[in-house]
Amino acid sequence: MKDSHHEDQVEHEDTEKSAFHVEEIMNSFTPDEQKKIIRRVDIRLVVTMGCLFIVSLLDRTNLGSASVAGMQKELDMNASNNGYSITSLVFFVTYTLFQIPATVIIRKLGPRIFLAGIVTLWGGVMIAFGFVKNWESMAGLRAILGGLEAGLFPGSVYLLSTWYPRYELQKRNAVFFLIGSVASGFGGILAYGLSQMDGLAGISGWRWIFIIEGLLTCVLGLGSYIFLVDFPEEAPKSWKFLNETEASFIITTIERDRADTNIEPFSIRKYLENGKDNKVWAYAILYMLATMPSYAIAYFLPIILQNSMHFSVVKAQCLVAPPYAFAGMVMYIQAVYSDKWRLRGPIVIGNALVAIVGLALLGFLKDPAPRYFGIFLATAAATANCPAMVSWQSNNIRGQWKRAFTSATSIGGGSIGGIIATTVFRAQDAPNYIPGLIAAILANGLVVLVSILLTLKFNRANKRVDAGGKPIEGQIGFKYTY
Predict the structure, then answer these.
(1) What's the rounded Cα separation, in Å, for the pair 96 and 344?
(2) Which residues contact 381 (CB under 8 A, 6 or more apart)?
(3) Alpha carbon distance 141, 159 (integer Å)
(4) Residue 420 host element (H or E)
(5) What is the pLDDT of residues 283-323, one digit of tens each?
(6) How far is CA 468 from CA 10, 261, 432, 477, 481, in A?
(7) Three-state DSSP class for 197?
(8) CB neighbours of 18 closer than 8 A, spacing ≥ 6?
(9) Quick check: is 332 in a domain?
């Protein structure tokens, strides 16, 4: 009894010392100084990764712009061989397969080396796109591109989740998406400008799109090594980005929020056992359903604008930009209030309903004006749901390896959404792609259903915790966000 009493006393003293140490770290900086530290993290982390996301989206979605600039004709992509759809699809096969290994590698190698390396490598692959002789060669290069790009998005989502508390995360995810999505929305304008190099050095205009954008990717990949930062516990090593006390402040903030900054030794068995949690797969399904319409818009919008709505090549490429600019504003405003209100599910449901309206306007009206308005609604809703969903899953998952696994499965689900988009938008359905648009509407309907079921599940779990039941995610006081 005496030993037990002594152990309890020692544990109580250790807890008091730990609490005192936490308060000491948090009081090391004034509120203004804390904001400045976080702002430095935002600039070095969110902005840099947003710039990499720009080239990621440009490099995976510039097929549409190259298509209207003459690629399909020159490479003999037609309805009989489905060359365009196959070339679009193979990217997502390797992109899906390499998601889970990528999140393990980024944890082992560190974000700076891993992310800068894969971006530079895929820039080289993009340059090679400009010199292919047939669509089969391009499809092969697209498969390589998918394997390399597999590491950026899940790695970025995971890295962001390690740096920010749960209810400061969606704003950062939104800015990350905002930088990439809005800038890539202007990719059509960039592609049109590059296509005007047609004939220079005997190279077709659509080839210059890949060559110049590939060079841009290589430059950003190499430059990102200087600006990217590693995980919070390794921050002082990242070009003296933060000192020990500043890094301790970040780590303490995360620890107080969800107590999962300590990482366990990697075990493949334990890593894969995270797949036993059904909400991990629910988030993967949600992201698959949400990204299917998003990818469909990115890949086929220039073609629909040109062939179905009868805009010229230049207008088809340039009219892609305004909906993405609008989507960026919607996405950020939504993220601010989502973090403030600590809501995720209702935001996702609302976006899906708006997307259904937008897709219906685009698919079933004849007048170009309301159809173009539908593009605004569908693009904004589909784009805004991406940061909303990754923030939702990040809020409800604890543990470093489980967060890495869930980031990979979620983004892997998104890549399957890309596969679905490229298969349901078939060449024989051009120029209106009605079956594909119906599939996109159904996908958003399922987003509503799955989100409602998850919200009910989380609500019941939180009520059990309030009643003194088993802790959620193994952490006393932790509650699900819904």
Answers:
(1) 25
(2) 330, 351, 352, 353, 354, 355, 358, 444
(3) 28
(4) helix 400-424
(5) 999 999 999 998 888 778 878 888 889 888 778 878 888 89
(6) 26, 26, 56, 10, 18
(7) coil
(8) none
(9) yes
pLDDT at 391 over 90: yes
Q: What are 238-281's pLDDT values in tens digits?
A: 667 888 889 889 989 988 888 887 788 888 898 999 999 999 99
Question: And the tokens for 65?
Answer: 């712009």
**Residues in Cβ contact with 387 at an 8 Å cutoff, skipping those fewer than 6 apart:** 170, 173, 174, 176, 177, 331, 335
pLDDT digits (tens, 9 = 90+) for 138-151: 999 999 999 999 99
CA dist., res. 178 & res. 328, Å (int)? 5
Total of domains in the chain: 1
Give me the CATH number covering residue 83: 1.20.1250.20
* Pair of tokens at residue 407: 């980031």
Q: How far apart are CA 6 and CA 3, in angstroms?
A: 5
Task: Count the alpha carbons within 13 Å of 445 in the hemisphere toward its beta carbon.
Answer: 8
393 assigned to some structural domain? yes
Structure token digits, residue 46: 């969110």
Domain of 447? Answer: 31-256+270-459
Which pLDDT value is given to residue 22?
Answer: 61
Using DSSP, state whether 30 is helix, strand or coil.
Answer: coil
Structure-block tokens of residue 366:
């004849």
Q: Is 243 a domain residue?
A: yes
Q: What pTM did the predictor assign?
A: 0.83
Condensed to tens digits (0 to 9), the pLDDT of residues 169-197 reads 999 999 998 887 766 667 778 888 999 99
Is 24 contained in some domain? no
Taking alpha carbons only, the member of 441, 336, 442 closest to residue 387 is 336
Q: 316-321 long-range CB contacts below 8 Å, 24 or more apart?
A: 316/68, 316/188, 317/65, 317/68, 317/188, 317/189, 317/191, 317/192, 318/188, 318/189, 318/192, 319/188, 319/372, 320/185, 320/187, 320/188, 321/185, 321/186, 321/188, 321/189
Average pLDDT, the chain: 88
Work out the angle at residue 44's Cα, subtended by the Cα atoms of residues 182 and 113, and round it to the nearest 5 degrees: 100
Share of the chain above pLDDT 90, in %: 58
